[in-house]
Amino acid sequence: MKKKILLASITLVAVSFGIVGLSAFEAHIINVTAEIENALSVNPEDINFGTVFPQEQLDRNLTISLSQSFQDEERVDDVEYVIRQKPKCGIPEPGTGPDTSSPQLYSSYMQATDGPNGTFECPDGSIMLPLLCPYLSKHKVDTGETIDGPDIDAFHGPIENWLMADTLANQVKGRLAKSLSDFEDTWKIDLKVPCFGGYCAQDWDDYVRKINPEVNPSQYIQPIEREHDLFGCDLWVEVTGISYGGELSCNESPDVMLVLDRSGSIGSDMPTLKNAAIAFVNALNPSTLGAHMGQSSFANAGSLNTHLTDATSTIIANINALASSGATDLEAGITLASAELGGGDGHDRNDATSPDYMVIITDGQPNVPNQAQGEADGLAAATSAKNAGTTIYVVGVGSQVNPAYLQQIASSPAHYFSAANFGDLQAILETLVTCNN
Amino acid sequence: MDELNKNISATEKIEKKMPLYKKILWGVLILVVIFVIVQFTNASKYKMTVMVVEGENVLGVNPTTEKLDFGDLSRNNGMIRRINIVNGGSLKTRVIVFKFGEVSELIKLNKNFFVLNPGDKFELTFDINIPASAEFREYKGNVWIFRLPKIF
To answer: Which residues are registered as beta bridge partners of A80?
Structure first.
């Protein structure tokens, strides 16, 4: 009996070690990871304009909202999205089309896929419908929030050979934010019906130019052969990013890059800036399973002073080593922080559980190589970081900053803070780590 | 008499001793059990959910990444969510995707069985379409992603 118990125990231990050993083998040798993307695409229900006549104008509404489950989650706040247009594909119905007396009809519709060189392709067995996309405008109906991108008028892009570049050039951006009680956006999708070659009304040019003065009206006249055809365009709502709540500390394990201005204008305020930054580090309290922090800085050029780490003493030592001199190359500081948060060197953790944040502190305007280029480069770097999922907070200190510009750098106007002087900085930074949930 | 009993007992022990092939079978069985347990333990398991709501063209999104939440959708609407699979190891790996539960009937998957070479990435797309006959309620399901070393 004792022998049986011993044998069973040995077997149990062997199985346990086997499970642990094989798990470790799989984790390190096989190492295949699966992560859900936060981007998603929505293909709305058909918006059917029915039979229409040249120069007719028809409106349909499209409503995009935060789902109830998203609203119920406390740790998430806003959703950024774009509405894109893509060609529509259909499976031709037998007995219809160019070689018959019937206009082309379709038994069902399919989604176009990305082809080579930025083109679109239809799946096997389907063909592309004549393009309706250039004639659809997209205007936001409710204006409760201000940072949505510009609307798009009808008569945009080519009427043939629509490319991905046309999709991107004619997309509209939107944002829903729980913190601003903006739970729903309604877009008016407005069709301006084209006329067909040789049968356009005398006021066609005025009609087009009134809507979009930039275009040549004759480019939007359809060939007469298409007069009775079915036109189509797929509208895609694509979520490009989400933010995880207003306060950093509401997340249990954020990855935070501090981006510090060390240009010459800081001067004698450098010790105050360092003290505020160190207080921020201490308040965030980096730890192995908690927050990880890193730090970049910028003057004539940028430098990555600290990789993302949980070693508080290292972060503080590197902040204390900063010296003030030179110009303001904001773009360099953002790009270095963004690369660190992008995970290229392995310090960034899984963004699903450790979302990325950047906290930028500056007292002036970018001026490397000059102000105009410096601002453009800084904005491009910030946009790239935000598109990659990083939430950017900006604190502008003193009167030399351009708040409107820095609000564009930040993830939203709500992510921008203004400090009258460096003495106010510490209190502002500490509010970022105060979770009110 | 005692001697005779001892001999009988020794003979019984010899008869009860497990033959070699059985020992090997038990060993293989244990290895298989370990392998299966590890695969089930290490599989990526995600919940899937969608709330079918009343109205026309209602698109309520929830892009959080803990589960495949397709948000609030009205009938005839669709949504695509994606899972990125990356082979960061040094072995060719078979990836097997199982979806089950009532929501899985509404979802098309671009691939459910494929091989991933070291360093390769693949984007699984989950394309949900709400039919006109769907009831106004929550549909739930699960997706499990298994990874097996491709030995042969």
So the answer is: A175, A241
User: Are the CB atoms for B50 and B106 separated by under 8 Å?
Assistant: yes
**Count, residues in chain A:** 437
Give the pair of three-digit tokens for residue B62.
């929830």
Q: Is B29 on the interface with A (CB under 8 A)?
A: no
- B113 and B53, same structural domain? yes
Topology classification of domain A248-432? Rossmann fold (3.40.50)
The complex's ipTM?
0.74
List the 84-113 stretch of B: residues with Cβ below 8 A of A.
84-91, 93, 95
Distance in Å, alpha carbon of A21 to nearest chain B alpha carbon: 10
Q: Count structural domains, chain B.
A: 2
Q: Chain-centre distance of CA B90, in angstroms?
A: 22
- What residues of A are in contact with residue B124 (Cβ under 8 Å)? 34
* Range in A241-255, B44-58, B121-135, B137-151 with the lowest mean pLDDT: A241-255
DSSP chain B: -HHHHHHHHHHHHHHHSPPHHHHHHHHHHHHHHHHHHHHHHHSEEEEEEEEEESSSSEEEE---SSSEEEEEEETT-EEEEEEEEEE-SSS-EEEEEEEESGGGGGEEES-SEEEE-TT-EEEEEEEEE--TT--SSEEEEEEEEEEEE---
- Considering only the beta carbons, identify the residue of B66, B72, B91 that sits closest to A68: B72
Taken in order B57, B63, B65, B71, the sign of the CA dihedral is negative
Q: Which domain holds residue B139?
A: 45-149
Ranges of each domain in chain A: 40-242, 248-432
Nearest to A39 among B63, B67, B86 (CB): B63
| B121-130 average pLDDT score | 89
pTM of the complete model: 0.61
Q: Which own/partner contact pairs does B102-110 have at CB distance under 8 Å and 24+ positions apart? A: B102/B139, B102/B140, B102/B141, B103/B48, B103/B49, B103/B50, B103/B70, B103/B128, B103/B139, B103/B140, B103/B141, B104/B48, B104/B141, B104/B142, B104/B143, B106/B50, B106/B130, B106/B131, B106/B134, B106/B139, B107/B48, B107/B141
